[in-house]
Design brief:
transmembrane; membrane; transmembrane helix; 325 residues; mainly alpha
Length: 325
């Protein structure tokens, strides 16, 4: 009597991973985040605009859906007695896909928050902070709701926050302090903005004139927020230094597993992409990738066109001034 053991292949373990986390969708999301960062740092007008645009909603939707999907998986987790090893591996792979997106956004959120600290963009700051807090809360919920998932260590192929309670607590405390400072920042900014608006309205009513260039001549940061901006920058930098610890640990794990010989140049890059059965050649993934590339292209064109228009206006003023002289 011979016994045969069936080992599940990697493709079988990815059977429950949603195609939402495919390479095309994930790459499109990264390109959208890059488009937002380019607009918020290089565009002369959009970096000062406090508006919730379609691009901002798109970059915040992907991690929000991943966090909501993570919570849904936790609540629908079947009893351990009804699962075999293959089913457990499939469920863990599905959790890992959501965790990859949420933890990547925790690092990206810090980077995306920094440009908004120097300009008056409370709406943008609030949306980014709420999305990052939701991602962190979903992982905290996973840590306490499913302790069996994180034991024994090494259930996942890469390092996550749930694998280290001290690091999870550190990030959670930093996030709470950062969100509190952001709320105070937005509140004081709103009060000062309203005060300036009332003062301008009163001044305009007294003189009977309105300065069309008033918005352009406003300072980019209220002076009353200098003391609050410094701790915001400090905690943002600490958070930016703490979040990549996960990525460095993943890098060391890959390096150790490969016995000090890289298995491929994309080994580290693949850690930021959920493992799914979906391929970039699938129609849905290709369309998503094309959408992200188009958004990045339009963002670059918008920045170049805005700087060209500014240069052309300055050139015309110089020519006009020369002719008048």
């Amino acid at each position: 009597m011979s016994t045969t053991t069936q080992q599940s292949s990697p493709s079988d373990n990815l059977a429950l991973v949603n195609s939402w986390y495919g390479p095309g969708s994930t790459t499109s999301w990264y390109l959208t985040c890059l488009s937002c960062l380019i607009s918020w740092t290089l565009h002369p007008k959009k970096r000062l605009a406090d508006a919730i645009t379609a691009t901002i909603i798109t970059q915040a939707t992907f991690p929000t859906v991943a966090s909501a999907h993570l919570i849904t998986q936790i609540r629908s987790w079947p009893p351990e007695s009804s699962m075999n090893e293959q089913t457990l591996a499939q469920l863990r792979a599905s959790l890992a896909a959501s965790l990859t997106i949420t933890e990547t956004y925790l690092s990206l959120c810090i980077i995306l928050l920094l440009p908004g600290l120097f300009v008056r963009t409370p709406k943008r700051l609030c949306l980014l902070a709420m999305t990052g807090a939701f991602c962190l809360l979903s992982e905290t919920y996973l840590y306490f709701a499913l302790p069996s998932v994180r034991y024994p260590p090494g259930n996942f192929e890469r390092f996550f926050l749930i694998d280290s309670l001290p690091l999870l607590v550190l990030i959670f405390v930093l996030a709470c302090v950062l969100v509190g400072l952001l709320l105070a920042y937005i509140y004081i900014l709103f009060i000062e903005f309203r005060s300036e608006e009332i003062a301008e309205t009163t001044s305009g009513a007294d003189t009977g004139t309105v300065d069309d260039d008033g918005l352009e001549n406003k300072p980019t940061k209220p002076t009353g927020l200098d003391r609050l901006a410094m701790p915001l920058m400090l905690f943002s930098l600490v958070g930016a230094g703490s979040s990549p610890i996960l990525d460095l640990l993943s890098l060391l794990k890959i390096y150790k597993a490969s016995k000090r010989s890289w298995t491929g140049e994309w080994s580290f890059v693949n850690e930021f992409f959920p493992k799914t059965e979906a391929s970039i050649m699938d129609l849905g993934q290709a369309v998503a990738l094309f959408g992200g590339m188009s958004g990045l292209g339009f963002s670059l064109y918008s920045v170049a066109d805005a700087h060209y228009q500014q240069w052309w206006q300055r050139k015309r003023k110089e020519v006009s001034r020369t002719q008048n002289n």
